[in-house]
Amino acid sequence: MTSAQVDKHDDRPAGNEAAGTAHSAGEGSGEGYQRGLGARQIQMIAIGGAIGTGLFLGAGKAISKAGPSLILAYAIAGLVIFFIMRALGELLMYRPVSGSFSEYAREFIGPFWGFVTGWTYWLFWVVTGITEVTAAAQYMSFWTHGSIPQWAYALIFTLILYAVNLISVKLFGELEFWFSMVKVTAIVGMILICAGILTVGFSDAADTATVANLWNDGGFFPKGIGGTLMTLQIVMFAFLAVELVGVTAGESKDPEKTLPKAINTVPWRIAVFYIGALIMILSVVPWHEFQPGVSPFVAAFQKMGLGVGAGIVNFVVLTAALSSCNSGMYSTGRMLRDLALNGQGPKVFTKLTKSGTPLVGTTVSAALMLVGVWINYVAPGKAFDYVVSFATISGMWAWIMILVCQIRYRRQSDAGALPKSSFRAPGAPYTSWFALLFIFMVIVMMGIDKDSRVSLYCAPLWALILGVSYLVLKAKNPENKAFAKRS
């Protein structure tokens, strides 16, 4: 079925008069994009956004630091993520736009904050794309044993995903649907196998498998409350990209129905795919047997004596990496185009293909991802790790902006200055303030942890670059409404 073409944006910088239009869901919100993402695809993009290498690989390190109490950390962080997503949902139903976070920051906080948010979220996905496509190439060596160079796989994956994102948004959505399906199937399969071991008692792990493993070996908090708190940055990193559903708003066929439904499934997704999976795995395999850098899924399969497990998990992790890179290709082009449409980026980024995909923005982002692969090839040391560490703090910046914008929007809508959203966040603004405080606590934990502290060193440098760039653009275009705060 051919996607319906929506009205094109007028390509003017967003001024006060622009802010007063398109507040109703769907009105003028497509900005030239095609609404090619259906309910099935939006649902799986939302599910896939919450499942990535942070769970399949990062959970091993977190288990070694916190033990079974990691389950509680995921539960609390999951509640915060739900508050963030409901805040985003309220904004999306007020005005569903592809620019999403940067557009709301521009309207409710000011043009500078929209500029910072758009470029920071773009950088987040470029950096994430670099790491994920490189990781995908490394995973391929599991089968090829180095017979094909790593850079060759990285090049092939990048070009394939680039082509997919240029052909049509519908093809992107379909690919993401199947990527997410693989991840979901793997987790559900693991849960069912573990449940079978606990109840029926098959496999090599049956003799020691018991729910009591959650508290027998040093208690539920074997490393103390402090150990649990120090895993929060790992936990929050695992949830990065859950907000991607907001970027799809301008290309959803029926955003009034599909987006709220996708957001409302966040609690059960977290309950099943994170909390449920961890409870099962930690019941079958005692927590102290997990090691940093080793997937808890691989460790569990090995404990069960299932020899095919390593190959299965490697395929799933490969899929998770490609899914993340695919999402990066999608979101970077949209963010650059939103910035350009608002006069805060080069106008060349506004160009769309005939199928309604951002040609130049996606191409530039894909090219930078290839440069990152090259850097990783020639200098895979600490410098590359420092760049990767920036992904967490830049990703959480989008969450902070979502919450601040929702708080300001709620204040204005309650006062009658703006129309009320059809999908109001329950408990807001108190839930939004709670989520903000939680995020800031995680940032403090990152500062304490020597392994993640470097990301906080990178943030001021990036802020300085953006600040200088904004001032230069504003000085060159003093009459541009993109640099005037909306009323």
Automatic annotation (TrEMBL):
Alphabetical keyword list: Amino-acid transport, Cell membrane, Membrane, Transmembrane, Transmembrane helix, Transport
The membrane-topology field of this record reads: Multi-pass membrane protein
Q: Which domain of life is it from?
A: Bacteria
Name of one Pfam family that matches = AA_permease
Amino acid permease/ SLC12A domain location is: 42-474
Alphabetized Gene3D superfamilies for the sequence: Amino acid/polyamine transporter I
Compositionally biased spans, kind Basic and acidic residues: 1-14
Q: Does this entry carry the keyword Transport?
A: yes
Q: Which residues cross the membrane?
A: 44-63, 69-88, 108-131, 151-172, 184-205, 225-245, 266-285, 305-325, 359-380, 386-409, 430-448, 454-473
Protein name listed in UniProt: Alanine glycine permease
Q: Organism source for this protein? A: Streptomyces xanthochromogenes
Main localization (coarse): membrane
Question: Could you tell me where this protein is found in the cell?
Answer: Cell membrane
Q: Which InterPro entries match?
A: AA-permease/SLC12A_dom, Amino_acid_permease_CS
- Chain intervals for the UniProt region annotation (Disordered): 1-29
Query: Which protein family is it in?
Result: Belongs to the amino acid-polyamine-organocation (APC) superfamily. Amino acid transporter (AAT) (TC 2.A.3.1) family.
